[in-house]
Write a structure and sequence with these properties.
Elements (H helix, E strand, L loop, with lengths): L18 E4 L5 E6 L5 H9 L3 H8 L8 H8 L6 E8 L2 E11 L12 E8 L8 H15 L4 E6 L4 H8 L4 E7 L2 E7 L4 H23 L3 E5 L8 H11 L5 E5 L9 E2 L2 E4 L11 E4 L6 H10 L4 E4 L9 H16 L3 E3 L5 E4 L6 E4 L7 E8 L2 H13 L4 E6 L8 H10 L5 E6 L5 H12 L4 E5 L20 H10 L3 E3 L2 H13 L7 E6 L2 H13 L3 E2 L3 E2 L6 H13 L5 E6 L2 E2 L5 E2 L3 H14 L5 E5 L5 H6 L51 E2 L2 H21 L15 H12 L8 E2 L2 H9 L8 E3 L3 H11 L3 E5 L13 E5 L2 H15 L2 H4 L1 E5 L5 E10 L3 E8 L2 H4 L4 E5 L4 H9 L18 H17 L3 E11 L4 E3 L2 E5 L17
Parallel strand pairs: 5-6, 9-10, 9-13, 10-12, 13-14, 14-15, 18-19, 18-20, 20-21, 21-22, 23-24, 23-25, 23-26, 26-29, 29-30
Antiparallel strand pairs: 1-2, 2-3, 3-4, 4-5, 6-8, 7-8, 11-12, 16-17, 16-19, 27-28, 31-41, 32-35, 33-34, 33-35, 36-37, 36-39, 37-38, 39-40, 39-41
Length: 957
């Protein structure tokens, strides 16, 4: 909304303060600045506030607003006087206002940094978290305008408002003066205020999803008068699933004498129903959707599933239509799944909802499934059905213009019916939020992700989201850091999901293999080695093995303290007549399940070849309770150094993820048609269990860094370097500027001196001291020793002059080469440390070996900033070439502790100063004692917006 011409011209309307938010009950509202055009809305709002609430606001009876009041409350300069309103359905439901004051409590302007704040919420909307949400937004506005403290006067009887201030998590002071409680809030965000904000965000967004998945009544808008069509199909599926609530059909073209469709009440509009409707499934052409949404909003519908196509997947016009759909729905407090959605399913016995185009409701289970693609959703449902897997919830969000995978992570985090979350994603609208939510959810239940559109470099059709510039390999590494199980195909996602949903987590990577086929056992053994597991020699039960033999062997393997998981391989029995017997699957399944049910809690997987009925029998549920996932014992704070490039599995003496003596909860035993698939799923479970053990004891930033970091000096230097009117494109720092900035964080860069001629080179060497290195700094030759642009260990003047002549004679004139002289560093391993800011993902810290390993082979590891001591330790150990740092082939191990400290310092620098948008330290020579930074490049830019640290708001695409 734009201001009228009467608005103060020198303070533009701050449209970036506008925000859609989710309230405590799951409904949405819009927050925006109050303008001069809002006089009528303000008067109407105030008339609906109770006398008691008015008394609490003004400390006296105040039945109506005077013309002067209305003018004062609608005219703001957006600097010293600011008012925000919360709107639903185009009307105000709450307001907040601050006025800047001086030390005496009188109106003031900057540099005064305190403001008086006051709230007013309509009684009908109190208890929905409106005031606490408003406080987050008005506090952010105040900080932007240089206000550091809020002062508020509250009557002692106004307990609700006192609680809003008390529970916000800000540092505050309270006193009792003149019959009122005087509150002062320090607006600087604290760890507690951020935790409070995110906890409220989780509850609100989870509740908004719950309202969609567990409605008391559903209306299908667009249910056809004759069989067939999308709307009629959804109506049939709702009835076929046995939905426990009320169902209505809505079709504006119903004949006058038609009052039912498929046996349910049929109406021409929602208004004719006469009862509340919680969820509406919209299946009408796109040009009729706005009318349907307005009808839903005016009659109190809580959420929409929009199956209609013709939106962002159709180009620019459709994208604008999609934005308008979201704006319209949110203005009424509704959230949307879709448009172009396939639908939603909730298998809870209390709901039994199939509001989708899936012809049959899948079996009940403990897997939650989210997909952005209807076609992939159909394939996944079919695959899970064939393998006997059950779902708790299923969501195919289509263009996911509003509700996304992030919202369902919020819901699944506390959902008692879901043990594993599976997500097929084609885009990440808010990568920072996704990794934060995924890390929290993965700490209590597995999150398995397939990421489509990995290499296209563009947004999939229909997905109007920011495009990240970081490579897919980096995205994968960041997901791993957050505990996400990233797999490449939907088949692998189902394979991993079946194992994680039905079996306990493994304590390590020691695998027992048993079966009646030596060849299949050897294939399984090789697959385990390829995945970094530690298999024991396969136990061959021979082709004459009976189901009882399998049961005894499995029980023995599970009881063995030297194994953490068991893979059973099975082929059909060969009868006396030489014919294969394939019908004994149920008998074998019974034997395996009996052994697993009585043994210690270790995962079991089965690889079989054409044994009829085995997979189905193994998938039969023996229990509907949640899988027990006992808390893992913590690992040491620093991982052990790798001894070989493939050494990624935990050490044999790792603490167990489960108590081996704990009673086992019977579950489905997953069956796989190929050894490689079973082993890959088990390997993912092993890595996830190891992450869970490590996540149980979070890393930290060592305190010793604080003693050697001068943050104020760095901030002042950055301000000076950027200037008063910085170029939005940023600027690279000169060598000496970069050295000065890095020195503020205890990072010493070995100085270089320019050598435009041989005499200058000799003078520079005399100043630095021999031996020296002579290097070119031309962009096309930088860090390219292989092209002859670097001469090392020059021990004297003659050697330096000779090297200078050879360099210029071979590669070009000094003006082109830009030679420099640098003192030699102790010998070691050349590495590279980088940090970059991605607009979507945030700050990313990277590490690799310099040269071919990182540049040619892509052997680089990544972590999100801020990095902890554990992140730094894992970072240098997770590259494939890491053994080079730890004494590979008899070489001396280098000082990895110094390298970890350098990584932490770089992380701290970019985290403290978002203006530092890129750092590259190359090479960093790590010796047996200490390290030397030989080259550094730094780029500064005006800081990008940090939406993840601001007040809660819904994304607008």
């Amino acid at each position: 909304m734009q201001p009228s011409p009467e608005q103060s011209p020198h303070h533009a309307y701050p449209d970036h303060w506008e925000a859609d938010v989710v309230l405590r009950d799951g409904g949405t509202a819009r927050i925006r600045p109050i303008t001069t055009d809002d006089a009528e809305r303000l008067v109407s709002f105030y008339e609906q506030v109770s006398d008691e609430s008015k008394y609490y606001r003004f400390f006296a009876p105040y039945p109506r607003l005077s013309a002067k009041d209305v003018h004062r409350f609608t005219h703001h300069d957006y600097v010293d006087r600011v008012g925000l309103a919360v709107m639903v359905g185009g009307e105000f439901i709450a307001t907040v206002r601050f006025d800047r004051i001086n030390a005496q409590g009188r109106p003031a302007s900057a540099p005064a940094d305190e403001a008086e704040v006051a709230f007013l919420v309509q009684d009908a909307h109190q208890g929905r978290g409106v005031a606490s949400t408003l406080l987050e937004h008005i506090a952010a506005v105040a900080r932007e305008r240089g206000i550091r403290r809020f002062a508020a006067e509250v009557l002692p009887a106004n307990n609700k408002m006192i609680k809003v201030f008390r529970d916000a998590g800000y540092t505050q002071q309270r006193s009792f003066e003149d019959g009122a409680v005087h509150l002062t809030l320090d607006l600087e965000p604290t760890a507690e205020s951020l935790a409070v904000q995110r906890a409220r965000e989780q509850r609100a967004e989870a509740r908004s999803v719950q309202r969609l998945l567990a409605p008391g009544s559903v209306a299908v808008i667009g249910a056809g008068r004759t069989p067939g069509g999308v709307g009629r199909t959804v109506l049939r599926n709702l009835l076929g699933a046995g939905f426990t609530g009320r169902v209505y059909a809505v079709n504006s073209a119903l004949a006058a004498d038609q009052d039912t469709i498929d046996g349910v009440p049929a109406h021409r509009s929602l208004g004719e129903i006469g009862e509340p409707v919680d969820l509406a499934v919209v299946a009408v052409p796109a040009d009729r959707v706005p009318e349907a949404v307005a009808d839903c909003g005016e009659h109190g519908v809580q959420g929409l599933v929009v199956l209609s196509a013709g939106y962002a997947e159709w180009g620019a016009e459709g994208r604008e239509r999609q934005r308008e759909l979201v704006r319209q729905a949110r203005s009424y407090g509704m959230r949307i799944i879709g448009p172009n959605a396939f639908g939603i399913i909730n298998n809870s016995d209390a709901v039994r909802l199939n509001a989708s185009l899936a012809p049959e409701r899948p079996a009940s289970g403990r897997i939650g499934l989210f997909t952005q693609s209807g076609a992939i959703g159909i394939a996944l449902l079919s695959g899970l059905y064939r393998r006997g897997a059950g779902l708790s919830t299923f969501i195919s969000a289509g263009n996911r213009a509003d509700i996304s995978g992030n919202d369902f992570l919020q819901y699944w985090y506390e959902d008692p019916d879901t043990d594993v979350a599976l997500l097929y994603l084609e885009s990440l609208g808010n990568p920072r939020k996704f990794t934060r939510l995924a890390r929290r959810t993965a700490a209590v239940k597995p999150v398995v992700v397939v990421k489509g559109a990995r290499h296209s470099g563009s947004t999939p059709p229909g997905h109007a989201v920011p495009v990240s510039r970081i490579p897919d390999a980096t995205v994968s590494a960041l997901m791993r850091q957050a505990g996400v199980i990233r797999v490449d195909t939907v088949t692998e996602m189902v394979d991993a999901g079946l194992l994680l949903a039905g079996q306990p987590l493994p304590a390590g990577g020691r695998v027992a293999i048993l079966g009646n086929s030596e060849s299949l056992g050897l294939l399984t053994y090789d697959a385990c080695l390829a995945e970094g597991l530690r298999p024991r020699p396969p136990v061959d039960l021979t082709t004459a093995a009976t189901p009882q033999d399998f049961r005894d062997a499995l029980a023995e393997a599970l009881a063995d303290g030297g194994c953490d998981a068991v893979i059973v391989t099975a082929i059909p029995w060969v009868g006396e007549d030489g014919e294969a017997e394939t019908g004994d699957g149920e008998v074998l399944a019974t034997a395996l399940r009996a052994a697993a049910a009585t043994g210690p809690a270790k995962p079991v997987a089965v690889v079989h070849v054409e044994i009829g009925g085995l997979a189905e029998a193994l998938a039969a549920a023996t229990s509907t309770v949640a899988q027990q996932r006992p808390a893992a014992a913590p690992l040491a704070s620093r991982p052990a150094p790798p001894t070989a490039p493939a050494a990624t599995a935990p050490a044999p003496d790792d603490s167990a993820a489960t108590d081996p003596e704990a009673p086992r909860v019977p579950g489905r035993i997953p069956a796989y048609p190929a050894a490689e698939r079973a082993v890959r799923a088990l390997a993912e479970a092993v890595k996830y269990a190891q992450w869970r053990r490590q996540a149980a004891v979070p890393g930290k930033v060592p305190e010793f860094l604080d003693d050697t970091i001068d943050e104020p000096a760095a901030a002042a230097l950055i301000d000076t370097l950027l200037g008063r009117d910085p170029d939005p494109r940023g600027r690279p720092l000169e060598h000496d500027e970069a050295r000065e900035l890095l020195a503020c964080y205890g990072i010493a860069v070995r100085p270089t001196l320019p050598a435009p001629g041989p005499e200058e080179a000799v003078a520079a060497a005399a100043r630095l001291g021999y031996p020296v290195a002579l290097k070119t700094t031309a962009p096309h030759l930088r860090h390219r020793a292989d092209l002859g642009g670097v001469r090392l260990d020059l021990g004297g003047e003659s050697a330096l002059r000779r090297a200078y002549g050879e360099l210029t004679g071979l590669l070009g004139k000094p003006a082109e080469l830009r030679p420099v002289v640098q003192a030699m560093a102790p010998r070691g391993v050349d590495t590279v440390v980088r940090a970059t800011i991605d607009p979507a993902a945030g700050a990313v810290l990277s590490f690799g070996l310099a040269g071919a390993p990182s540049e040619l082979l892509g052997d680089t590891a990544h972590r999100l900033v801020p990095a902890t001591d554990r992140d730094a330790a894992e970072l240098i150990r997770s590259i494939r070439a890491a053994p080079v740092l730890f004494g590979w082939r008899g070489s001396a191990p280098v000082d990895t502790a110094a390298l970890e400290e350098l990584l932490l310092r770089v992380s701290r620098l970019v985290d403290d100063h978002p203006e530092v948008v890129s750092i590259a330290l190359e090479p960093v020579v790590v010796a047996t004692q200490g390290l030397t930074v030989l080259g550094a490049s730094v780029r500064l830019s005006p800081p990008p917006a940090r939406t993840d640290l601001g007040p809660r708001r819904l994304s607008n695409y």
